[in-house]
Q: What sequence folds into this?
């Protein structure tokens, strides 16, 4: 799935087919997942530009006469202006960790972390786009746009893998005061994440850190003499007794989570945790609610 | 072979490698288990963590022990351990193998032969020349290479006798003739005989003597006796060991002449007892057919008891001229005959016309002069076919003109008129006594008592052949009994009466003896030697040592007394002997035989032939090693943490234990035929004819019918199926469609039994000859003839063409004819019960019983019903719309038929008559 500089026409066609082959299932699943969330009242809860009725208020000097609602005004002597709810499109930036470390599923019946992350990202995008928001990726690859075509573009872009073990968070070209969702296992270098998040916070961007972990990464069910390798093989650690490492590994995992929490508190982001063994729908609901909440 | 701790090893040096085990322990202990590579993204969190324990993860001691045990089992297994290793045959020099080879060892002969073969190969390995001496058939000792003898073992068979004294003497001579010393090996059959010590002595003089004694107790069967209406069987065994049961099988020809087991009886030896008895009661017909009794499961001449006349009760027709006169029983011509014959024969009295068809063994006419011509012709025919006619003279015969002027076929001699009386008040001379019997007379050997006198007799006309016919005479040479052959049979005339009127012969025991000799009666007991004096018996069939029938062709006859008194030997083989129409069985055991087990002097070494057999333990140990290694796999997986999921455990277990199978010789189980998964659904079936085209047509036809049923009725059949009558279970199918082809084979007897059971259990077969276009004129077509052949063995009731009011015409649709591809054929169903009459005004008879088990027709319904996979009709029927109508009627017939099968006579119920009447518009 790597893109070559100048692919031969047939190879391009072939890879395009492969790409396209991966798209529909992801899209369909994401649509299904998104369809399970009932969109509620998604206005901004204040008067502004929009389609929906918000309130009548007495006309004030300066109001254009065209704004006077005659049906309401005819009931009494006072003139009323019909105000609409302020509905403004937000920009949502997504970052999905495409690193090799995400391509891991401890059991055949569990999805890989990256699959779950993509699914959740796309489903969230669909929901957001339905709600009228603009959704895009961080970085310059795919700036936020609205409309169903954007879903297709997102789906395509999300399917690109990265070869490196741990992908670095993309924090360029983020629109100020936008929303952001970072989906990753956050097992990679912490400093980069800190950098990205503080930079985003500087721009007034708030959002959600969503950690997707495999159950094995949470329980560390290993024993015996073992060599642990990262997915791409760049890192390795040998132990004579894996079971002896369990407690300290869990300690470090909790430590990492504490750091994430602290970072979130600092930047006003929210931290979510999801295991691939759990239901994707619950995660989506949480994610959606969290995004909704960060808006206010 | 080296023996350690009672276990022999074929490769003992391999055991030295056991010393290397501690070294292996050290090596295995030093090497930790190989590390496991795991992909784990969380490795970033692990980086920099040190192991708490600096010691590497050692293999635990119990796993090491497991591996040590596996390796040890492997080494010991490969060293070839043998439990109960065979005894080393020490010694050198010539070896004499002495075999009893009598019938007593026949039951265990295979065992003896195997042991003999083993001993011979042992001797062959030791390069010892071997001679074999059979005491029951001694031959000169011939020391040869053991391998030469091995090829001749198969020819050694046991003889049906014990070594006789003459044979022992001959054997002693042969041993004496052999030079030099030799060791001896004696295979003892387990029965004692008198001259054994002398042989032991001679053999011990020459060298070592080892006796191999058979382990089993010898079974023998005494001759069967007829006792109070039942057959008394008694068996013997040589050792009164634990309680034991023996089954005695009575064999004989069935009416077709094939030898069969006619009856069985079970004898139970009580614990410690050497004898067992049983009674067997059989109808005379069956009893007379028995030719031998044998103990089941034992092949030995001693376990066979041949039967002779003593088991047969002859059927004798007694006919006298007078009507029964109760007051004068002692004067009745038949009284003495009855007394003489009753114990040994079944007597029938009545008229000749009624008795002759029963085909008695003998007919006795007491003073009957003339017979009606028809009866006489029948009697002549009967005698010519092999019957025995015994006539007694009397006043009527003397007074009649029978055989006066010419020979009469039913009289041995011509008679002079009147007869004569001697020694009476009005005559001269003394009552005559009997002359001694001539040598060619069947009565030769019987002693003539002095008190038998004859006062009157009918006198034969002198002639050239009178001497030939005369078999008993009076003191003055006048014939008393004459005999002549007629065809295959014989006619015998006693020239005196059958009562005591003319002579005192009927009062004497001689009378009974004479009747026996004439084989009118048969002895119920074994005759004594005196009774057989003067007779010569030729063997019909003799036994070999294993109890099989052997050829008696060139054996010479045996004098009667010898037959009783001489013990069996080469000149006196057990078997069935015949003399003058009587048969006598000479069995190995006699009524007073006793089987005594052989006893050996204390200075003779005796071993059992059934020493515990060698048992190789190598396989067992190698299996154990495999099992241990499998356990090691599991344990290693467990230790390295690879045994996480239950599936892996299961796989490992299967791999571990599946490869190890213990050495058992359980026979492979016969797989039962899979039960058809049809019981849940209704399935129409057709009989596979072997003609692929017809079978496909039947399948398509039934598919069409099934579809029609599915669409139109509440019957929802599954896909139809073809049934193989030989193999398939029929009980699942309510209806069998059987197209008749000329080429289909007749089902086997088992298949017919299955079909009959199917029909009786309510199944229905629709026979379709598929030739109604040819058969409508009443001609019998080839298919119809084939149907007759096929259905002959079926249990089919009387048939009739389907009547108009048959329930088939209204089970679902109202039908009047039943077309298929042809429309003219007649449909035959089970005939209605007779006496059912149509009630005036009702359209149907009251026929409430029974579903017809067969429906026979020739309209080729399958073609009319047949649809292809797409549901389209496969064959055109008729022309245009009329053809489609005919097809529709064919389907309706099919629906009616299936409804008839499934609902029976439901529609015949009177409850529905009003509604049906209404629909019929009546």
A:
């Amino acid at each position: 799935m790597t893109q070559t500089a100048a692919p031969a026409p047939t190879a391009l066609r072939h890879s395009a087919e492969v790409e396209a082959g991966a798209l529909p299932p992801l899209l369909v699943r994401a649509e299904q997942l998104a369809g399970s969330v009932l969109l509620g009242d998604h206005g901004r809860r204040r008067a502004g530009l929009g389609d929906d009725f918000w309130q009548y208020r007495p006309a004030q000097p300066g109001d254009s006469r065209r704004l006077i609602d005659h049906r309401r005004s005819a009931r009494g002597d006072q003139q009323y202006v019909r105000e609409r709810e302020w509905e403004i499109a937000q920009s949502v930036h997504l970052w999905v960790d495409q690193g090799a470390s995400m391509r891991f599923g401890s059991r055949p019946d569990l999805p890989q972390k990256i699959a779950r992350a993509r699914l959740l990202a796309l489903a969230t995008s669909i929901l957001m786009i339905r709600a009228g928001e603009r959704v895009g990726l961080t970085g310059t690859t795919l700036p936020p746009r609205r409309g169903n075509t954007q879903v297709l573009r997102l789906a395509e872009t999300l399917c690109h893998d990265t070869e490196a073990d741990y992908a670095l968070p993309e924090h360029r070209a983020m629109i100020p005061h936008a929303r952001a969702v970072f989906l990753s296992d956050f097992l990679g270098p912490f400093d980069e994440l800190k950098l990205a998040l503080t930079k985003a916070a500087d721009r007034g961007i708030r959002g959600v850190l969503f950690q997707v972990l495999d159950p094995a990464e949470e329980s560390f069910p290993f024993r015996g003499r073992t060599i642990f390798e990262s997915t791409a093989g760049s890192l390795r650690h040998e132990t004579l007794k894996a079971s002896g490492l369990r407690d300290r590994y869990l300690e470090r995992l909790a430590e990492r989570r504490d750091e994430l929490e602290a970072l979130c508190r600092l930047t006003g982001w929210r931290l979510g945790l999801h295991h691939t063994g759990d239901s994707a729908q619950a995660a989506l609901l949480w994610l959606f609610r969290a995004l909704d909440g960060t808006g206010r | 072979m080296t023996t350690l701790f009672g276990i022999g090893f074929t490769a003992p040096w391999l055991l030295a490698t056991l010393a290397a085990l501690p070294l292996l322990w050290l090596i295995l202990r030093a090497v930790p288990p190989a590390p496991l590579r795991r992909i784990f993204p969380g490795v970033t969190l692990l980086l920099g963590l040190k192991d708490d324990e600096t010691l590497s993860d050692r293999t635990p001691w119990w796993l090491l022990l497991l591996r040590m045990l596996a390796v040890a089992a492997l080494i010991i297994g490969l060293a070839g351990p043998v439990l109960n290793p065979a005894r080393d045959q020490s010694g050198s020099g010539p070896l004499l193998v002495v075999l009893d080879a009598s019938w007593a060892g026949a039951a265990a002969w295979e065992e003896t032969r195997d042991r003999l073969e083993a001993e011979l190969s042992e001797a062959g390995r030791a390069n010892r020349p071997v001679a074999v001496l059979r005491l029951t058939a001694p031959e000169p000792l011939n020391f040869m290479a053991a391998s030469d003898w091995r090829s001749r073992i198969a020819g050694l068979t046991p003889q049906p006798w014990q070594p006789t004294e003459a044979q022992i003497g001959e054997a002693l001579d042969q041993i004496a003739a052999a030079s030099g010393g030799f060791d001896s090996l004696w295979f003892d059959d387990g029965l004692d005989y008198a001259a054994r010590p002398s042989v032991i002595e001679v053999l011990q003089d020459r060298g070592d003597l080892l006796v191999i004694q058979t382990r089993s107790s010898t079974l023998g069967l005494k001759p069967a006796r007829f006792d109070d209406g039942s057959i008394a069987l008694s068996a013997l065994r040589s050792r009164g060991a634990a309680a034991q049961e023996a089954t005695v099988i009575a064999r004989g020809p069935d009416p077709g002449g094939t030898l069969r087991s006619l009856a069985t009886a079970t004898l139970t030896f009580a614990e410690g007892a050497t004898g067992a008895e049983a009674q067997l009661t059989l109808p005379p017909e069956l009893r007379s057919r028995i030719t031998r009794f044998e103990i089941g499961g034992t092949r030995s001449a001693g376990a066979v008891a041949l039967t002779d006349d003593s088991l047969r009760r002859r059927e004798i027709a007694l006919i006298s001229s007078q009507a029964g006169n109760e007051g004068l029983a002692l004067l009745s011509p038949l009284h003495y005959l009855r007394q003489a014959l009753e114990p040994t024969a079944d007597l029938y009295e009545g008229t000749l016309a009624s008795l002759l068809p029963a085909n008695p063994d003998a007919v006795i006419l007491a003073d009957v002069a003339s017979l009606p011509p028809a009866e006489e012709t029948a009697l002549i025919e009967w005698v010519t076919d092999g019957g025995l006619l015994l006539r007694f003279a009397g006043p009527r015969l003397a007074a009649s003109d029978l055989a006066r002027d010419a020979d009469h076929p039913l009289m041995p001699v011509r008679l002079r008129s009147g007869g004569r009386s001697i020694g009476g008040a009005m005559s001269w001379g003394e009552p005559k006594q009997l002359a001694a019997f001539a040598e060619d007379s069947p009565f030769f050997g019987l002693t003539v008592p002095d008190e038998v006198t004859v006062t009157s007799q009918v006198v034969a006309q002198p002639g050239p052949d009178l001497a030939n016919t005369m078999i008993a005479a009076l003191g003055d040479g006048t014939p008393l009994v004459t005999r002549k052959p007629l065809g295959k049979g014989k006619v015998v005339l006693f020239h005196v009466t059958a009562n005591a009127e003319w002579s005192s012969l009927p009062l004497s025991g001689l009378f009974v003896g004479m009747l026996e000799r004439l084989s009118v009666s048969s002895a119920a007991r074994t005759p004594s030697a005196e009774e057989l004096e003067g007779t010569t018996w030729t063997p019909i069939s003799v036994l070999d040592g294993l109890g099989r029938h052997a050829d008696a062709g060139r054996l010479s006859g045996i004098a009667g007394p010898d037959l009783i008194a001489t013990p069996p030997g080469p000149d006196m083989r057990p078997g069935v002997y015949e003399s003058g129409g009587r048969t006598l069985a000479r069995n190995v055991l006699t009524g007073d035989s006793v089987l005594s087990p052989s006893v050996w002097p204390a200075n003779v070494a005796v071993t059992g032939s059934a020493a515990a057999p060698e048992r190789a333990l190598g396989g067992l140990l190698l299996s154990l090693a495999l099992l241990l290694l499998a356990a090691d796999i599991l344990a290693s997986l467990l230790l390295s943490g690879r045994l996480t999921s239950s599936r892996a455990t299961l796989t490992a277990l299967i791999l571990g234990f599946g490869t190890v199978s213990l050495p058992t010789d359980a026979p492979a189980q016969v797989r039962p035929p899979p039960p058809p998964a049809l019981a849940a659904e209704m399935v129409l079936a057709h009989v596979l004819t072997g003609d692929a085209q017809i079978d496909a047509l039947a399948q398509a036809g039934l598919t069409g019918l099934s579809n029609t049923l599915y669409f139109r009725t509440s019957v929802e059949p599954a896909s139809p199926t073809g049934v193989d009558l030989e193999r398939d279970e029929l009980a699942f199918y309510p209806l069998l469609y059987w197209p008749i082809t000329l080429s289909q084979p007749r089902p086997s007897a088992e298949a017919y039994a299955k079909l009959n059971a199917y029909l009786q259990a309510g199944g229905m077969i629709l026979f379709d000859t598929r030739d109604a276009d040819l058969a409508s004129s009443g001609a019998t077509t080839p298919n119809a003839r084939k149907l007759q052949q096929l259905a002959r063995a079926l249990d089919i009731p009387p048939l009739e063409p389907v009547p108009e009011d048959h329930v088939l015409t209204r089970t679902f649709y109202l039908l009047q004819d039943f077309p298929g591809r042809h429309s003219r054929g007649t449909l035959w169903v089970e005939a209605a019960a007779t006496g059912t009459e149509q009630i005036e005004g009702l359209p149907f008879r009251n026929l409430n019983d029974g579903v017809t088990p067969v429906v026979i027709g020739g309209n080729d319904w399958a073609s009319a019903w047949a649809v292809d996979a797409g549901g389209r009709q496969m064959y055109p029927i008729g022309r245009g719309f009329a053809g489609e109508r005919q097809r529709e009627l064919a389907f309706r017939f099919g629906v009616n038929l299936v409804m008839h099968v499934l609902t029976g006579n439901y529609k015949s119920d009177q409850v529905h008559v009003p509604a049906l009447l209404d629909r019929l518009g009546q």
